[in-house]
Design goal:
Blueprint lengths: L1 E3 L6 H10 L3 H17 L6 E5 L4 H6 L13 E5 L6 H13 L3 E4 L4 E4 L11 H4 L3
Parallel strand pairs: 1-2
Antiparallel strand pairs: 2-3, 3-5, 4-5
Helix pairs in contact: 2-4
Length: 131
């Protein structure tokens, strides 16, 4: 079973990205859903998305990067149902990478994002969204 504890992105953010790249949300959500389903198959525990969209204040409290893709809902933090052993984390990270996501396994979760790090601020996206 998959639990999602994080909030979805704001509607204006979804509209902004859909204007730039029509269909991006359907693609991202379908790929993330397929990856999460594959990770969760056969697990003893629950796969948990602990963070999705974050406000600037939530991101700061979480210790997130000031230009985090969580600020626009294009990043997830995931704890696989198989636990946080290096083997389980690596397996889940490889599944997300296979769906085209940029992944950064940590000791406690896997950080998954759509774009390479550091691309949103220089591209003007965060400023356009007043983040």
């Amino acid at each position: 079973m998959i639990q999602i504890h994080g909030a979805p992105p704001r509607l204006e953010t979804v509209r902004f990205f859909e204007h730039l790249v029509p269909g991006i949300w359907n693609h991202v959500l379908a790929a993330a859903g397929a990856a999460l389903t594959q990770i969760d198959e056969g697990n003893v525990g629950e796969t948990i998305v602990t963070s999705w969209f974050r406000s600037v204040n939530e991101n700061r409290r979480a210790g997130g990067h000031p230009d985090s893709q969580h600020l626009v809902g294009l990043a997830l933090d995931v704890v696989p149902g198989k636990g946080t052993s290096p083997l389980a984390m690596n397996e889940a990270a490889q599944i997300f990478a296979g769906f085209g996501f940029v992944v950064d396994p940590d000791r406690t979760h896997i950080h998954v994002q759509v774009f390479p790090p550091g691309i949103l601020r220089p591209s003007g996206i965060l400023d356009a969204l007043h983040v």
